[in-house]
Write a structure and sequence with these properties.
The complex is a heterodimer of chains A (321) and B (549). By secondary structure, chain A is α/β, with parallel strands linked by helices. Chain A folds into two domains: 217 residues, Rossmann fold; 63 residues, Alpha-Beta Plaits (2-Layer Sandwich). Chain A is built from eleven helices and 13 strands. Chain B has 24 helices and no strands. Chain B folds into two domains: 262 residues, no CATH class; 245 residues, no CATH class. Chain B starts with 21 loop residues before the first helix and ends in a 6-residue tail after the last helix. Classes of the chains: A alpha/beta (321), B mainly alpha (549). At the A-B interface, α2, β5 and α3 of A face α14 and α18 of B.
Chain lengths: 321, 549
């Protein structure tokens, strides 16, 4: 096909009455970290489990390494590793034993004591491999699955909210390890609702809501399509600001006795707004790019929980309403 | 106690505020357990009703009663059921107390252990206790509420046991004593479980520790009661023995119950003291470190299947092999009492020789339990699937077919081994006690057990097929098959049920070896059914989705 590591188009999946996926599109290129972003229940885990061939799609196409994950699961699994969001392990085995188990299922070499990467990762994640997994916290169980996946020699990592149980220090280790991983040319599909993580790691991002992709592109592209927040304090009053095109959510913020005006500006109207502000005597001005929180709130918050069936679909972003 | 209120840093003893919320919590527990505990209580009560009345239905006159009594007074009988007070002058009431009351005590103990662990350590392990304790709830409220709940259940059960005994027309003092002894056993083991829950970190270890105390009590009592009628000094070292030493309907003595009450109170004091000292979620026994590397055998599909299933197989295997040996040692007794057995018993034990019939019967009975081990094995596979561990395994390059066939292979090997060993144990015990034809009987008994393998295979096949195509039905279908087979094997003939009902009993098709010669048609058909079921199950598993709920 087109050499994509993962290629999904128009994927639908229902469980009884529940429409889990409703026309999902997603593509992961070789060597890229792809952030898969969406709130709880958006269908991220269902999509990952279809990519793994654990669930069968109702309709749509799913290709992983240009093969059918339902039919060719075993062959594909040699090239990928998976970390579920909610890791359950065998309570009477130790963490080290579980890691070996998974590595050995891949190959004898992966599970042998020659695999330096295994021990290195155990060190870096500060895991005690001699403890029974029964006594592990959620974060430690997640570390076990992460180490087993990262120590394997695979081309694609499927990570389903992999750090939801990790502390901030381990989160940093995780980000370093993922960054190293991609320099080796692996692809990563990273599902998360933790925005900072996706922001820090991802080359491209897909935002999914109610089972369909609402936005996809690089972080830059997504930001370009959205609004910049500006906080400004001027000598003369900002009377006509609200009437300008592309200005949203004007409000006042008072702190320390001075009042500042806060506005959100559409990317393509920034120029006009700044020209309008300049002659008013700007005392101070701060501008920051939209955070992913704001992206999400735009895609989820505005139309609330009610489904918008006329949602434009994949790459058409932005647009004021 | 109120004096302690002034010590600001070190909390000692049971203070009023450490019980805050007990009442509300108790009501919540009653609601949570509204189905489970009543079923236990009703089951225990039903047991008393059933036995008190069935005894009189099966044995029709005094002469038969004396003969039946000799089974319990016999050393092997005492080994199985207790000290057998008053069997020289048996009445129906004494017969009830000597032969069956032990099972009421055992059920009471199990009910108490499970309920206490369920509401204390299991809650902590699941993290729900933390959520509760964050509210206005005293340190001891959970433990106290759990114990109150269990004692409530024990009192209700005792009431039903009493009613059951009275429904058999048994004397009042002895019946109250039987019921009271049951409650005393329940109290003691509730306290033991409360201590165990403080010591260990997981609910499984807590149940295992308390269950171990129960098992040890049973073993001590066995050996103690084997020594002579009325038991020996050793019987007095067993909490189960204490309750049996009340000798209901014979000596009607109350004072032995001081022991379970005394030790129960000691246990409670200990449990509350431990609960006061430790952190929430922590245990007091250290958890041992394991190996940092997996041994080579573990890291294969077969290895991990064995890891999942071995504990279950070992448990069932040990219990069944021990039961086989116990039943086998009854063989000579059966020869001796054969001529005098009441009519109904002879109908259960088919054939001219009661002893051979008995051996054929226990061959089937134990094989049904081997099949039950098979059902719980497949239930464990379903548990692997639902917990997400199967999913994790299958995300590695391991095909579904290999995953399931590895598990089925381990199950089949384990079940076959149990059947063979249990046959050998029964046969060895029988050959040791039998005075005639010992070597021929050894072979017969060993073959009788193995002869049931096709029926076990058929049950496994049906359950594996269900796992492949209708996984939600695995438990219901499996346990119905087992329960139905056990019921029909035990009561089918006594109740003279219509023929059609026998058709659904998988264990009713094979010839009753050694009473009848082996028939090959059912052997082939049942084996075929089993193999077909496993193949169907593998096909279904390849085609269906992996569920997590």
């Amino acid at each position: 096909m087109n050499g994509m590591t993962v290629q999904i188009a128009g994927l639908r999946k229902t469980f009884g009455q529940v429409q889990a996926l409703d026309g999902l599109d997603l593509s992961v290129a070789p060597g890229e970290v792809h952030g898969f972003l969406g709130p709880n229940g958006a269908g991220k885990s269902t999509a990952l489990r279809i990519i793994l061939g654990l669930l069968r799609p109702d309709s749509g196409t799913v290709r992983v390494f240009d093969a059918d994950p339902w039919r060719d699961a075993v062959a594909l699994h040699r090239r990928l590793a998976y970390v579920p969001g909610d890791v359950e392990l065998w309570p009477r085995l130790t963490g080290g034993e579980v890691i070996d188990l998974f590595l050995n299922l891949r190959s004898r070499e992966a599970g042998s004591s020659k695999n330096r990467r295994r021990d290195e990762l155990i060190d870096r994640f500060e895991l005690d491999p001699r403890k029974k997994t029964r006594t592990y916290s959620k974060g430690n169980r997640q570390k076990v699955a992460l180490i087993a996946a990262l120590a394997a020699d695979v081309d694609l990592l499927l990570l389903d909210e992999p750090t939801s149980g990790l502390d901030p220090l381990m989160e940093v280790v995780f980000q370093q390890v993922i960054a190293e991983t991609t320099t080796e040319g692996r692809s990563v599909l990273l599902s998360s609702h933790i925005l900072a993580q996706v922001e820090a790691l991802s080359d491209r991002i897909s935002i999914i809501r109610a089972g369909r992709t609402v936005a996809s592109g690089t972080l830059e592209e997504l930001r370009h399509m959205t609004r910049t927040t500006i906080e400004v304090e001027t000598q003369r009053p900002l009377t006509e600001l609200a009437q300008l095109a592309g200005v949203h959510g004007l409000h006042l913020k008072t702190s320390g006795g001075s009042a500042r005006t806060v506005i959100d500006v559409d990317a393509d109207h920034l120029d006009e707004v700044l020209l309008h502000l300049a002659p008013l005597g700007v005392r101070s001005l701060t501008a920051h790019p939209p955070t992913l929180e704001q992206l999400l709130i735009r895609y989820y918050g505005d139309s609330g929980t009610s489904d918008a069936p006329d949602e434009p679909g994949d790459l058409t972003l932005g647009g004021t309403q | 106690m109120t004096a302690e209120l002034q010590t600001p840093q070190k909390y000692r003893g049971l203070r009023a505020e450490s019980l805050t919320g007990t009442h509300a919590l108790l009501r919540a527990l009653i609601r949570l357990d509204r189905l489970r505990l009543p079923l236990w209580v009703l089951g225990i009560g039903a047991m008393s009703f059933y036995v008190a009345n069935a005894v009189q239905a099966i044995v029709s006159n005094e002469r038969e009663l004396v003969q039946m009594a000799s089974i319990f007074a016999d050393p092997v009988g005492r080994l199985m059921t207790g000290p057998a007070f008053g069997m020289d002058e048996p009445t129906f009431a004494r017969f009830y107390a000597a032969g069956y009351v032990l099972f009421i005590y055992l059920l009471t103990a199990l009910m108490s252990i499970f309920a206490v662990v369920r509401h204390t350590r299991a809650e902590e392990q699941a993290g729900r206790a933390e959520l509760l304790r964050a509210n206005v709830l005293g340190r001891h409220a959970s433990l106290t509420a759990a114990l109150l709940l269990v004692m409530l259940a024990n009192l209700l059960a005792a009431g039903l046991v009493l009613a059951g005994a009275l429904s058999g027309g048994f004397p009042l003092p002895g019946s109250i004593l039987v019921a009271g002894s049951g409650a005393a056993v329940g109290f003691f083991f509730a306290a033991a479980a409360a201590v165990a829950s403080q010591l260990t970190e997981s609910s499984r270890s807590a149940s295992a520790l308390a269950g171990g105390i129960l098992g040890t009590s049973y073993l001590i009592r066995m050996v103690g009661d084997l020594g002579g009628p009325g038991g020996t000094a050793l019987s007095w070292f067993s909490p189960l023995g204490w309750s049996q030493q009340t000798a209901p309907y014979v000596e009607d003595r109350w004072w032995p119950l001081i022991l379970p009450l005394l030790f129960g109170v000691v246990g409670l004091v200990l449990a509350f003291a431990l609960n006061n000292r430790r952190d929430l979620g922590a245990g007091l026994l250290p958890t041992r470190a394991g190996s940092a590397r997996a041994p080579a055998w573990l890291s294969t599909a077969l290895g991990i299947s064995a890891h999942t299933l071995l504990g279950m197989l070992r448990g069932w295997g040990a219990a069944l092999i021990l039961s086989g040996a116990l039943f086998g040692s009854y063989a000579q007794t059966m020869v001796e009492t054969a001529a005098d057995l009441p009519e109904q018993f002879r109908r259960v034990f088919t054939g001219e020789s009661v002893m051979l019939g008995f051996l054929a019967y226990i061959g089937i009975f134990l094989a049904i339990l081997v099949a039950a081990a098979g059902v719980s094995g497949v239930r464990l596979l379903r548990g692997e699937e639902l917990s997400g561990r199967a999913e994790l395994m299958l995300s590695a390059p391991l095909s579904r077919t290999r995953w399931l066939s590895a598990h089925v292979l381990v199950l089949l090997t384990g079940l076959s081994l149990i059947l063979i060993l249990l046959g050998l144990a029964t046969a060895t015990a029988a050959a040791m006690v039998l005075e005639e034809d010992a070597s021929a009987r050894f072979r017969d008994v060993a073959v009788a057990s193995l002869h049931q393998a096709p029926a076990v295979l058929a049950v496994l096949g049906i359950v594996v097929a269900a796992f492949g195509w209708a996984p939600r039905l695995v438990g219901v279908l499996g346990w119905s098959l087992i329960g139905y087979a056990a019921f029909m094997t035990n009561f089918g003939r006594l109740l003279e049920l219509p023929d059609i009902l026998h058709r659904f009993n998988i264990f009713g098709y094979l010839a009753q070896f050694p009473v009848e010669p082996v028939e090959w048609t059912p052997v082939v058909l049942l084996s075929g059914l089993g193999v077909l079921g496993i193949i169907l199950g593998l096909t279904g598993w390849r085609h269906r989705q992996i569920n997590r709920n």
